[in-house]
Amino acid sequence: MPGAKLSTRQRREAKLGKVKHSKRYMELAKQTPKGSLLTPEEAINKIKSIANAKFDETMEVAVNLGVDPRHGDQMVRGTVNLPFGTGKSRKVAVFAKGEKADAAREAGADEVGAEDLIEKIQKGWTGWADFDLLVATPDMMPLVGRVGSILKQKMPNPKAGTVSPNVAQVVKDIKGATRAEYRVEKEGIIHCPIGKVSYPAENLQANLITLIGALLKAKPAAAKGKYLKKISITATMSPSLSIDTTVAQKMAEKS
Question: Does the pLDDT value for residue 231 go beyond 70?
Answer without folding.
Answer: yes
